[in-house]
From TrEMBL:
Gene3D superfamilies: 3.30.70.270, EAL domain (3.20.20.450)
Transmembrane segments: 295-317
SMART domains the UniProt entry points to: EAL, GGDEF
Full protein name: EAL domain-containing protein
Residue ranges constituting the EAL domain according to the UniProt record: 494-748
Species of provenance: Actinoplanes oblitus
Domain of life according to the entry: Bacteria
Alphabetical UniProt keywords: Membrane, Transmembrane, Transmembrane helix
Domain annotation GGDEF: ranges: 354-485
The keyword Transmembrane is annotated on this UniProt entry: yes
Amino acid sequence: MISRSAIARLARSAGFLIGLLVLVTSVVTSVLAARDKQATAQDHTLDLTLEQQTAAVRNYFDQSRAIAQMLADSPVFIDFYQAPGTNQQKIAAGGPLLDRVNDTLAYLEELYPGRISEACFVDRDGTQIARVVDGYPTDAKNLRKNEQKASYFAPTMALGPARVYQTRAYQSPDTGRAVISNSILLTAYGHTGIVHFETSLDSFRMPATTGDRTASIVDAESGQVFVDSRAASTITGNADQTFVPLARAGKLKGTTTLDGRRVAYQRMPATLNNANDWYVAVSAPAAGGGWTRGFSVWSLSLLLGALLTILVSGLSWRSHSLSVRRAASHDALTGLPNREKFTERTRNALRGGRPAAALIINLQGFRNVNDVLGHRHGDLLLTQVAQRLTDAAPAGAAVARIGADDFAVLLPGDDLATARGTAEKLLAALHRTFLIDDFQLDVEANAGLAAAPEHGTDAETLLRHADAALHLAREQAATVQEYDAAHDTGADHRLELLGDLRRAIGDDDQLSLHYQPKVCLATGRVTGVEALIRWQHPKLGRMAPDRFIPMAESTSLIRPLTAHVLDMAVRQARLWADRGTPLPIAVNLSTRCLLDPGFAGQVFGLLYRTGLSAALLKLEITESVAMADPDRALTVLRALHDAGISLSLDDFGTGHSSMAYLQRLPVDELKIDKSFVQAMAGSRADEVLVRTAITLGHNLGLSVVAEGVEDEAAVVALRALGCDIAQGYHYARPMPPGEFDNWLTTYTESLSALTAGG
């Protein structure tokens, strides 16, 4: 018979072995999990960067095609063919006819410096009619006679009119640079010719990425690196052989490890009108290599947990019970109390008629973070937001997470004035840049405020009114908004209004554009207009933009709305241009536009369909829009700017962007927010701010516009400060196109009379 002591020893031995097994399993599991986590995080970051770089390359091809198509529509080439005489006679004669052709080709290089260095006009027999290299026309005696031997010639002829052909990379015989060519066929008066220009291969080089990531363009046939974010481009490729196995495998898309580097790649195969067969690849040293990288604080915590499990296994059930109860009352991600727990605490704070205030805070654009960067980055952002709110909240306050991107703060004993000060302090804490892995994110937030007993004496009413105040803050673009019963229209009304707006898009009887002039302060001349949307609701009448634009911004409806506004503005600009009064039209952009890699291509397509010059379209962005996702926004902005579209930074001074980032923005114009312009007459601080903004804009090479100019005194002050352009009621309110035409005629006649009289 086995004694009790032997049984006890056996039990202790079994317990020791089980504990040891748990310990070893914990170590192995921890290391493998840490390595997998590192690798997964790296793959996610590489995939995100690859998506941005691929979109940038596609945009370059789209831009080049749009440029070629606009060139083919230029009347100068048609006029050349229409003029009497043979091509050789007209070339030998020179004069204005040929000068116009050369000027058009040279202007192309001027518009896109560093990208386009050679452009030519070629007849179907292979004879060059004109060629411009680095801005200088080529003498007639040096024009080539055998362009039919060039690689672009035969494929372009085969494609037919209005189709653009893009060659494989080659070394330009004129500049010696690595280039691809873009050519398009045009026909007129029985003649056929080709407009051809070379785009520098180096212009496809992606900007330097953060950390140790590298972006490359690789020849899909040989694996040679044509374009690299670290080095200049060559048609022979550099010495990097990392991607040769990628070319041999021939896969379209994926992630792999090559020569110690983790590589995310996307193939862009050749097409009928583009002979380039490329891989876009983003790479970095592979993460998680070696066992030592798996050991982390979390690994040690697991080891300690295994030992504690052996020693205190009897307490496990109690701990489990506590966890279950906590899970029912707290948010699993942030650890903050959930809505039910927050409501319970609010009830306790209001007992006996005691005063209290409730704040509900919403993060603007959080859905974009999830859509663009992924849910992992969104979760990391939420945990950092929770920590900042907890750190900034006063003693005795309760912070909770009550929705996907909604947080609540209970302020027991606070009145409205005190609660508003706390709300502004909390939002200021959120306006500092968040660092999420390698990405810098700037977050805007709104807050709704309700206080007891003014806005309710029970928890449910107080929180409902705080939520209504939050919706009002979002609609009025305010940071903190107190509850106002007069504006509490309810969620049902907002949903109904969104449905009405969706049906109104495309209905010119409801949605229209009004135009407000922008006037040069030095000459008084009208330099352009800003397009402002108006909605004539069939039942509610005229709707103010600040009532429906924030609602559209919070949903996917903003994209079709922006597309509709752009279409109306571009067609109006073309109409004015055809009448002989070309006026650049400015249109405001939403955050969602700059996060859409295909947005630039949509704009180029609209310009091509309407035939409007890119120089007559200006797109306005705000600092907060540009900072929603800086890297992706820069990709889209650079594509638009490189195509000749002017960009303007609107409402300057009201955002939270860094000066270093502003210097990277490819903008041409800076608009000072009207709140500072209108306050500068009575505020020395606002006058200094306006002067500083003007100086900053000029130092960055930007034109400066002052918004909200309402009287002659403001005009005089701004002119003395060196401001370039003014916009405001002093000159005109926003007007429908017909009224604007009448105003412009009257204003121009008055200006001419004043100039003549002076």
